[in-house]
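Lab notebook page, bench 4
Experiment: in silico fold of construct C2
Operator: M.H.
Input chain length: 314 residues
Purpose: comparison with the prior construct
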Amino acid sequence: MSLETGAATGTAAAMDIDLDPARTAALAAVASVPPDTGVPKLARGRGLRLGARRIGYEVKQYFRAGDQVFFTFLFPVVMLAIFSVAFSGTGNIGTNPDGSGGISQAAFYLPGMMAAGILLSGVQNLAVDIATEKSDGTLKRLSGSPLPVISYFLGKAGQVLVTSIMQVILLLLCARFLFNVALPTEPSRWLTFAWVYLLGIVTAAVLGIALSAVPRTGKSATAVVIPVVLVLQFISGVYLSFTMLPEWLQNVASIFPLKWMAQGMRSVFLPESFEAAEQGGEWNLVGVAIALLVWAVIGMVLARVTFRWIRKDS
């Protein structure tokens, strides 16, 4: 076999092994640049197109990881089913003095599971995923490739958005058809749902990127991230009624974004009679918007400052 044939065979084999279509396209784009043009540059808009292609790759990788699918995608659905069945014998919540009215356990827990799903899809998913890729050398290899940074993050953000929307749809379908939860019919409530969801998922995603800098290795990522996420769920009105918590713990929970996501979701899915039980006696949607916007900005700054392709101490 000649040297030329061996080199061609090796190149073809390398291309077959590379399973990332965005990275492959980026390499092809650079290879097409004439050698006399100096430093190779991708065509304008190429980074966005590569990012869009990478979304599909990231989504496929996400659903190939069984543990990740269960603990981020299916976990809120499983918890909704557990709480709905376990507490069904206690009757409805918020009934009148004569025992009439109120809502089912499934209807009561649905807003909290929506908020928990946003947190899991953004914070837990990205923090563990990026920390693992940093530890196993994936990010180091990508940093040496012509794949733009914006393409990498567009792929991650797109994967979070796609899988989170699928999770929301699954939660709504389960609540409606398995537990007969009456969903809102007013357009204004669905409009509130849309902006709370979008602000929440953006905030969770940037915080997940920032939190990925904390674990020292991929193996320790779940041990670092999951306890943080779990504690926030217990103190933010996801698993326990927020009014059950002592006032000082409510104030602590109010510092973090999950409490505001859950409060915004309760304003969408719970009857108006439940508004009086909120902290301050109102849904306070202005406060929800401000808190999530502030945390989104904080997350973006932290992500920009802390993100590295490789750890400095590695």
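Observations: Confidence is low (pLDDT under 50) at residues 1-18, 29-39. Residues 235 and 249 are 7 Å apart (CA to CA).
Next step: discuss at group meeting.
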